[in-house]
Specification:
binds NADPH dihydro-nicotinamide-adenine-dinucleotide phosphate; about 325 residues; about 15% strand; alpha/beta; globular; TIM Barrel; 8-stranded parallel barrel
Length: about 325
């Protein structure tokens, strides 16, 4: 069946400007880290992508190694683009990254010019694209001069293979240096992708302040702590859940302490007429430094429920105060 995108898609999801750039993102974006690999159902992927786009989610985040198998999420995304989504290429913001292990040898990971350039070429080929909208250095490389890593990002822009560049998992000081180097090369550091949720508040210790000071946007990943900030595990570990597959989220994260706190947060969410996931998304979006919350979804239903968070984003001071002692570092 031919896909016809919903004509009212831009009325569905509010957007935010990324720092002081021309880039604008939906308040909730969709990541393809899980659920889009060669092991995952292709028709479900298609349904989730189409529903997302129909609901105004025009940003899709990838990386060279997403799968499993590594690379297969980009390959599958390329197939979905070719089948139908690709006709909306000028409306889509597609990102990819390089930095974690992807192939053997010294250039299959980290931040050398060789590695980043080869990886971007591979990503473009897997997705069958001429360019990506955002290209990230996925992690800081302590053994490569930052000038070289940022030089490779700048070259990606100058060669037309990326429109904007970003860094991910860099701390405040590394980010400040990266921005200064890129500035000298005439390419702004537009966006940062840190992990941020009620269960990992690291960016509050200086990164958000630095980003705001430098007018760099933040798209925060795993705002639901991989599913821990939802009711997914309240009655055990479902067979089809991320924890059951033990792919990054381990079953030993589902502790008594975790369940107690998550259920209390769930109660606070219910008082607002929300699910825990919706409260967790409203909570990350309360930060002025945050341009977008980058979620994952294994079904259309999860996606729809999560996007409904945007109908009730305001958190009263009393609600924030009640959340504060429960928003604990280290549970995610
Ligand atoms: P989330 O914290 O949003 O977790 C998503 C998972 O939570 C889903 O796959 C699903 O798991 C579960 N879930 C989502 N909604 C619901 C719901 N309403 N009810 C119950 N369970 C729900 O984000 P991710 O950890 O998936 O990360 C999002 C994106 O961030 C990635 O795809 C990637 O693009 C990016 N990322 C970037 C990293 C980086 O280093 N830059 C690292 C990690 C992620 P289930 O399978 O159990 O249904």
């Amino acid at each position: 069946m031919t896909y016809e995108a919903a004509t009212d898609r831009y009325e569905q999801t509010p957007t935010r400007r990324v720092g002081n750039s021309g880039l604008v993102l939906p308040e909730i974006s969709l990541g393809l880290w899980h659920n889009f690999g060669s092991v995952d159902d292709f028709d479900n992927q298609r349904a989730v992508l189409h529903r997302a786009f129909d609901l105004g989610v025009f940003h899709f985040d990838l990386a060279n190694n997403y799968g499993p198998i590594p690379g297969s999420a980009e390959e599958n995304f390329g197939k979905h683009l070719k089948a139908d989504l690709g006709k909306f290429r000028d409306e889509l913001i597609i990102s990819t990254k390089a930095g974690y292990h992807m192939w053997n040898g010294p250039f299959g990971e980290w931040g050398s010019r060789k590695s980043l350039t080869a990886s971007l070429n591979q990503s473009l080929s897997r997705m069958q694209l001429d360019y990506v909208d955002i290209f990230y250095s996925h992690r800081f490389d302590p053994n490569t001069p930052l000038e070289e890593t940022m030089g490779a990002l700048a070259s990606a822009v100058h060669s037309g293979k990326a429109l904007y560049v970003g860094v991910s998992n860099y701390n405040a000081e590394q980010t400040e240096r990266a921005a200064a180097i890129l500035n000298d090369l005439g390419v702004p550091l537009t966006i940062h992708q840190p992990r941020y949720s009620m269960f990992d508040r690291t960016p509050e210790n200086g990164l958000f302040t630095t980003l705001e000071h430098l007018s760099i946007g933040a798209i925060v990943f795993s705002p639901l702590a991989q599913g821990l900030l939802t009711d997914r595990y309240f009655a055990g570990i479902p067979e089809d859940s991320r924890a059951a597959r033990a792919h990054f989220l381990q079953q030993n994260s589902i502790t008594e302490e975790y369940l107690e706190i998550a259920k209390e947060l769930n109660g606070l969410a219910a008082d607002r007429g929300q699910t825990l996931a919706q409260l967790a998304l409203a909570w990350v979006l309360r930060q002025s430094a945050v341009s977008s919350a980058l979620i994952g979804a294994s079904s259309v239903k999860q996606l729809e429920l999560n996007l409904a968070a945007l109908n009730n984003k305001h958190l009263a001071p009393a609600e924030l105060k009640a959340i504060e002692p429960l928003a604990k570092h280290g549970l995610g």
